[in-house]
Structures are given as C-alpha cells and as structure tokens.
Amino acid sequence: MKALEVKDLYKNYSRWRGKTTKAVDGVSFSVEEGEIVGFLGPNGAGKTTTIKCICGLIEPNSGDINIFGIDAVSDTRKAVENTSAVLEGNRNIYWRLTTRENLEFFAGLHGRSKKETKSEMDKLLERFDLKEKEDTSARKLSRGMQQKLALACALIRGTDLLLLDEPTLGLDVKTSKELRRFVMQLAVDKGKTILLSSHDMNVVEDVCERVIIINDGKVLADDKVRNLKSLFDVHLYDFILRGKPSLDEIEEYHEVIDVRYENNKTRLKVSLKDSGSFYRLIDHLRDSGMELEKVENLDTHLEEIFMNIVEEELGG
Ligand code: ATP
C-alpha cells in the first residue's frame, strides 16, 4: 500500500512587488508503506515547503496529497492524524514545558493517556539520553537535546508516517549515528514509513534505500540509491605503483584523475569504463615493468551522484 502520494504539487510564495517564488513547481512522488526515502536538494530547493504541505501546515496552490489513501488537501485533519513531522529548528516542542511534559502533551494530542504511554516515554527518554533532563524545561536544553526531544515527541504520537526535516542537524556524531540506527529500526521493526530530508549525505546513504532529489521545486531524480550508483558508477580506481610510469600511453586509453609521486611510489587515480579497461591497464603496467603494490576500487558516494545530478541540471 502507498503510505504517501504527492501528485503535481505547486506552491508559490508572493514576494515583493508582486513577484512570486515557485517554491514547489509540479512535484510528484510516492512512498510505499515501510519505506525510508531520502529527500535531497540544495538550499532553497523546496524540501521544507513540500514537507509542510504534506503535514498540513501550509496549503498548496494546487496538487493532490494522499496519506494512507486519505486526501490530505481536502481532509487535512483526518490525514495528519497518521502523520508526525519534525521540522527544522525544533519548532514543534513547547519551550516552557519540561521534557516529560512535552512528551505527555504530544501523546495526549493523539488521544494517548499518560498511563498508556508511560513505559514508551521512559524508553524514549533512555534512548535519547534525556532521562536526567526529564524535569528540565525544553528551553534550557542544549540544541542537540531539543532536537532529540522534538523527535521523541513525534514518535510518542505513534503515527505510521514520519516526516523528518533535517533530523540530525545539531547532533554530535555519536548521537547522529544512534539516531540513524533508530530510524532504520522504526521502519524495519515497526513498519513505519519515513520521508527524511538531510544535507548530510552520510545520513541519507546510511538510512535510505531510495532518494528523491529536487532542485528549484522540481524532481530531478527518484530512484533506489543502488540504481543511481550504478548509473553514475565511473569505476574509480586507486593504483599504488613502485616507480614512475609513463603517463602518455595510460592517458591515451584511460581517464587519469590524479597522479602523485612520493617516496619513489606513484599513486594513480583513474576512471575506467569497464572491467576490460581494468585488465588492459594491468597488462600495460606489467608490460612496462611497473610493480603494482596496491589497487583499490573507490566506491561512488551519494554526494558525487547528487552533485552530478544537480550540476547537470544547472549546466543544461
Ligand atoms: P533548505 O535546504 O535551505 O532548508 P528547502 O529545500 O527546504 O531549503 P524551502 O524552505 O522549501 O527550501 O524554500 C523553497 C523556496 O521558497 C526558497 O526560494 C525560499 O526562499 C522560498 N520560501 C520558503 N518559505 C517562504 C516563505 N514563508 N515566504 C516566502 N518565500 C519562502
């Protein structure tokens, strides 16, 4: 079943002198139940605006949004009963309430009693290292703690769809890693559906199987990370050779990205088209008497793919 369907979504913002910003310019995508999908894009691409339209915080100019089959544009209230969002800047917690009171408040909003959610709250407080701060008012928490509390408040509502806008922003490396594991568990163990935006490619690469890349309010790519990787896989290899090879012949057949000589060794980074080129290069090195010390296949990272897609769009 589709947890979320967004179709032909448009949202304009009015600017000074009657000009408009097309923040979301015909965005369509869907997310299956239990999927974790990364939502990527440069600053101002339209991610937050899309997420705000989905959780009913702003009204789109046009387009359809369906959450578990419920029309979220005409029946926002009902649709968002099944949706929790953590927006940038910890906006969804109450600064005057304590950590625990915030959790109780958000559970209550969803019709869940203190008694019913007590053990769940304790687990979340433990999980996010907030137990010691349960009686501290939210405004006195560190930025990272506020971010964790915002996420805990979204989770205590127990909804099936989670919209996480930059959930690891402001978190230290350890907490960010814990949170990634936790997000994955939510999908795998509890079947939650998650749409996650982040500028941190490591987060997206770790957690998401599929990514949607947007720029200027338009979807540029929507595919499994695995497929995007094979599409953009440029077969980068790092060779460490003893001595100094003649580059002329190598450059004739292969794209040399970088060469460094150090301590009588050569580090050669090349981009090969296919495995045939790999063996041709090895043969060539052997025939010219070069001794190969090490060769390493450099994985294509999501960051390079993202840059490729966004720059291609800007260039074209
Ligand atoms: P970032 O990664 O920087 O958070 P984003 O992808 O979330 O960016 P949005 O915040 O959705 O992008 O912004 C999309 C565009 O809409 C930008 O050009 C932004 O300046 C504009 N915009 C966003 N909110 C408003 C608003 N309330 N009023 C006017 N323009 C807005």
From the structure above, extract its key features.
single chain; 316 residues; alpha/beta; Rossmann fold; Alpha-Beta Plaits; 2 domains; six-stranded mixed beta sheet; 11 helices; 14 strands; elongated; binds adenosine-5'-triphosphate
Short note summarizing the structure:
By secondary structure, the protein is α/β, with parallel strands linked by helices. The chain contains eleven helices and 14 strands.
Architecture blueprint of SSEs:
Layout: E1 2-14, E2 20-32, E3 36-40, H1 47-54, E4 62-67, E5 70-71, H2 76-80, E6 83-86, H3 99-109, H4 114-127, H5 143-156, E7 161-165, H6 173-190, E8 193-197, H7 201-207, E9 210-215, E10 218-224, H8 225-232, E11 236-242, H9 247-253, E12 255-262, E13 265-271, H10 275-287, E14 291-298, H11 302-315
Parallel strand pairs: 3-8, 3-9, 6-7, 7-8
Antiparallel strand pairs: 1-2, 1-4, 4-5, 9-10, 11-13, 11-14, 12-13
